[in-house]
Amino acid sequence: MGVANRRSIAWACVQSFLSQNYRVVFTYQNERHESTALHLKGNHPNIHALPCNVEHEIPILFQEKIPELFGDNVSLNAIVHSIAFAPEIKTHSLLETSRHAFQVAHDVSTYSFLEMAQQALPLLHPGSSLTALSYLGAVKAMPHYNVMGPAKASLESVVRGLALELGSFRRDYHIRVNAVSAGPLNTLAARGIAGISDIRNDVTKRAPLKRNVTAEEVADTIFFLATQATGITGQTVYVDGGYSIVAGP
């Protein structure tokens, strides 16, 4: 969920799953993104694109659109949530954040993952998985990340709570829930953060691998967690070239 354009982590996930012969449904926000989504989809028989504004259309997606696409006996193996938004993030510090901006950031970036789990549950296959995208700002104070830091911290907490509840939700189901904390990529969402170029440059200087990771590396880790890592749940896995382990210059 959450393809904006070709640079999106969500689109890299589509490619990763397709490479392993999965049928993939990806969502885009609204009509403004429809032409881009349909262009990306092309005529590929195993890609389907559906609109979903997560502020009010998640029930429609899972109760109507996906069953209409695949039939009433649809069974989902994995869902990837790659959606985040915070108004005022470029113009207001955390201290200056309004109640409205705080609520929207948590609604779009965090509650949408919880509601996704609620609505998708009847469609999930035994042993299926839910994976969320997070960032280092969930656990560290990052310059310019502002209100998105608390939203991502909340998201990671939701991941742990859902992992506890869904791991034994129903006999033999064992649904796994994880998060992947990606390094700073050159995505549309990242460009909404002031100073993102400085952060990416800092990664090349301080990360053990001395480079930024790619969307493909993040997507391949998500694929592993979602489909193969059957013993892993409730975890946040960092794909950032080791940047998150470094404590000094």
Summarize the structure.
The chain has 249 residues and is of the alpha/beta class. Helix content is 39%, strand content 15%. The protein has 7 helices and 6 strands, in the order H-E-H-E-H-E-H-E-H-E-H-H-E.
Classify the beta-strand content into a percent band.
Answer: 15-25%
Q: Roughly what is the average pLDDT, rounded to an integer?
A: 93
Radius of gyration: 17 Å
Distance between the termini: 36 Å
Q: What does this protein look like?
A:
- This protein is of the alpha/beta class and 249 residues long.
- The strands form 2 sheets. A 4-stranded parallel β-sheet has the order 3-4-5-6, sandwiched between helices.
- The longest helix is centred in the middle third of the chain and has 22 residues.
Label this structure with key terms.
249 residues, four-stranded parallel beta sheet, 39% helix
Please give the structural blueprint.
Layout: H1 9-18, E1 24-28, H2 34-41, E2 47-51, H3 58-70, E3 76-81, H4 99-120, E4 124-134, H5 148-166, E5 176-182, H6 196-206, H7 215-227, E6 236-239
Parallel strand pairs: 1-2, 3-4, 4-5, 5-6
